[in-house]
């Protein structure tokens, strides 16, 4: 399996730590991670965007681990924010968390099912077929 990042010079360059497109070739396992909410196992939802981001990325990390994957396997991330003013903080935490990993990325401003949730993140990961 190979992962290729596509950032052609004929389209605007990504402004953050992501790729315009990600291609996967060869035999691969796909992992579709449902929208993760900013809730701890004990049901707590912190009020601040930073803590909520950290909880969500920790949840995604744990899901990836149980599938034998890591952040390096992410090919697509979608972030749903309740307020555009949180995009910078959420992006900073994503960049710090993912490091050199540059999945395809979409960020939207929406209304979440629970007004306490300031964001929700879903992802797609790939790994070589077992």
What does this molecule look like?
With 130 residues, this protein is of the alpha+beta class. It has one domain (31-125): RutC-like (60s Ribosomal Protein L30, Chain: A, 2-Layer Sandwich), CATH 3.30.1330. Helices cover 23% and strands 33% of the residues. It has two helices and six strands, in the order βββαβαββ. It has helices at 49-66, 87-98, and strands spanning 2-6, 21-25, 28-36, 74-81, 104-109, 119-128. A four-stranded mixed sheet has the order 3-6-4-5. Strands 1-2 form a two-stranded antiparallel sheet. Strand 4, helix 2 and strand 5 (104-109) form a beta-alpha-beta unit. Helix 1 (49-66) runs parallel beside helix 2 (87-98). The protein is globular. It starts with a strand and ends with a strand. The model has no long low-confidence stretch (mean pLDDT 94).
Helices and strands in order:
Elements: E1 2-6, E2 21-25, E3 28-36, H1 49-66, E4 74-81, H2 87-98, E5 104-109, E6 119-128
Parallel strand pairs: 4-5
Antiparallel strand pairs: 1-2, 3-6, 4-6
Please outline what is shown here.
This protein has 130 residues and is of the alpha+beta class. 23% of the residues lie in helices and 33% in strands.
């Amino acid at each position: 399996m190979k992962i290729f990042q596509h950032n052609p010079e004929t389209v605007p360059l990504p402004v953050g730590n992501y790729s315009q497109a990600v291609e996967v070739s060869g035999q691969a396992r796909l992992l579709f991670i449902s929208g993760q909410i900013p809730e701890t196992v004990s049901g707590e939802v912190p009020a601040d965007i930073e803590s909520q981001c950290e909880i969500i990325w920790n949840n995604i990390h744990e899901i990836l681990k149980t599938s034998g994957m890591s952040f390096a396997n992410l090919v697509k991330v979608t972030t749903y924010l309740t307020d555009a003013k949180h995009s910078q903080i959420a992006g900073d935490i994503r960049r710090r968390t993912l490091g050199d990993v540059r999945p395809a990325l979409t960020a939207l401003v929406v209304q979440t099912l629970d007004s306490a949730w300031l964001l929700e993140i879903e992802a797609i990961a790939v790994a070589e077929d077992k």
